[in-house]
Amino acid sequence: MITLTINTLDPSVSDDGDMAKKPRTDRPRRRSFSPAEKLRLLAGYETATETGTGNAFLRENGLYSSLISEWRRTRDAGLLTGKPAGSVVGRPTGDQAEIARLRRQLDLAERRLVRTEAALSIMGKAQALLEDISESGDRPPTSRR
C-alpha cells in the first residue's frame, strides 16, 4: 500500500499541521457605514442612475440594490440626518414611516401632474392643427397663376 502526501507529490510544499484544522481568525467583517457615508453613497447612486450607470456604481462600491432601498427608506423617514457618526440608526417610528409614505405619494402625484400637463398641451396643439386643416378644407382653392 502506497500513501501519498503533499510532501511526496511536491516537496516544496510543506505540511502546515494544525493550521489547516483550525478555523480562520481573520474572517471577513461586515462593513458598516456612517449616516454621512450612506447619504454620500445614496447621492452618488442617484446621480449614476440618471446617467444610466447605476449598476456599475453598485459594483464599484460593493453595494446591493436592497441596501440602497433600505437607506432610501431611512433617509426619507429622516433617520439619516442629525445623527452623530457611529450612532445606531433605528427603525422609523410610525409617524416617520407615515411621513415617508406621504412624501413618496406626493412625489408620484407631482410626476403624474407634469405628465398630464404635457399631454394636455400636446392635445391642445393637435386640436388647433386639426381646426386649421378643416378650415382650409372649407375654403375654395385659389389658383396661382
TrEMBL record:
Polar residues compositional bias, start-end: 1-11
Domain of life from the UniProt record: Bacteria
Region (Disordered): 1-36
Protein known as: Transposase
Organism, scientific name: Actinoplanes auranticolor
